[in-house]
Write a structure and sequence with these properties.
Elements: H1 22-35, H2 56-60, E1 66-70, H3 76-84, E2 89-94, H4 97-110, E3 115-119, H5 122-129, H6 140-146, E4 162-168, H7 186-195, E5 196-206, H8 209-221, E6 225-226, H9 257-264, E7 270-276
Helix pairs in contact: 1-4, 3-4, 6-7
Bound molecules: S-adenosylmethionine.
């Protein structure tokens, strides 16, 4: 489908404060090419062209288990995991330009070479990067109908699937009228399922109670995942207080500035982990 310059996608991020200081500009110019995958842009600066070609193994220069992070922010989790697991390829999608620069700066500081970053809206880009039938679709109902299906004729369909997908502290969109912007939504579950290998884990975390409940409801209602934590860690504030479904903190998830701020403000952290099953839906 052609790129649609006129189409206003619902976005799960805002691009406030997108200016980079000279230090980061210089670093990006010098070291960016080692880490940032440059793809043609689509209908706006955070969209990739539907014709973008992407080869995971070529981007990393090798075949290895793949973890994908959506919204790494300053890259604390991304670089920590990459540093502890040099045998993994760790791919991040970040829509905020200064975030991309910070991820590169951190990767350089820690001397990791197994990180790649794509500056894009993950919801728009992932179906193209992994050759899903939802590539190029903008309307939530159509994306939902395409579900997790891979378009075998798509040039990126042969990319290896990920063993892990992380969505840690996504923008919470607190106001009721903004909740449709939350990235963890019914239409996104098919995309998450489409890029995960069978047995792969989707890990999520948030410090906002009502987003945690929504995440749990959304991933459990989706036909693609098993929740091994059904009934665990019930939350007394949950509208269904007995229900639980939350995971213990993943031991590899490190403390980020966002989590710290949530804790300081007295909020509770919820972790969620679901497993991509291979049963036909
Ligand atoms: C609240 S911050 C959390 C950062 C980090 N995950 C952490 O835990 O510290 C959310 C990040 O997700 C990014 N983001 C939000 N929606 C996105 C999307 N659709 N695609 C890529 N990045 C996104 C934002 O730009 C921001 O950097």
């Amino acid at each position: 489908m052609a790129d649609r310059p006129d189409f206003a996608r619902i976005k799960s991020f805002t691009l406030r404060g997108s200016r980079l200081g000279d230090k980061y500009e210089e670093l990006l110019a010098q070291r960016g090419p080692e880490f940032v995958i440059d793809l043609p842009t689509g209908h706006d600066a955070t969209a990739i062209a539907t014709s973008a070609r992407f080869d995971v193994n070529e981007a990393f220069g090798r075949e290895a288990p793949l973890a994908v992070e959506i919204g790494p922010g300053s890259g604390e989790q991304l670089v920590s995991y990459a540093s502890d697991h040099p045998d993994w390829n760790v791919l991040a999608l970040e829509a905020w330009h200064p975030g991309v620069a910070r991820c590169v700066a951190r990767a350089v500081r820690h001397g990791v070479t197994n990180v790649r970053v794509i500056e894009a809206d993950a919801a728009q880009a992932l179906p193209i990067l992994f050759g899903l039938e939802s590539a190029g679709l903008n309307v939530p109902e159509q994306i939902m109908a395409a579900g997790d299906r891979v378009d075998r004729a798509h040039q990126n369909a042969g990319n290896p699937r990920a063993q892990m997908l992380w969505t840690f502290f996504p923008d919470p969109w607190r106001k009721a009228r903004h909740r449709k912007r939350r990235i963890v939504s019914e239409s996104f579950t098919g995309i998450a399922a489409g890029l995960l290998a069978t047995g792969g884990a989707w890990r999520l975390a948030t410090d906002w109670d009502d987003y945690a409940w929504q995440m749990r409801d959304t991933v459990e209602a989706a036909q693609y995942f098993d929740n091994p934590h059904v009934g665990q860690l019930p939350d007394p504030n949950d509208p269904e207080p007995e229900r639980g479904g939350y995971a213990p903190r993943w031991e590899e998830r490190i403390m980020t500035r966002f989590e710290e701020r949530g804790i300081e403000a007295g909020r509770t952290i919820h972790d969620i982990e679901v497993i991509r099953h291979g049963r036909s839906s």
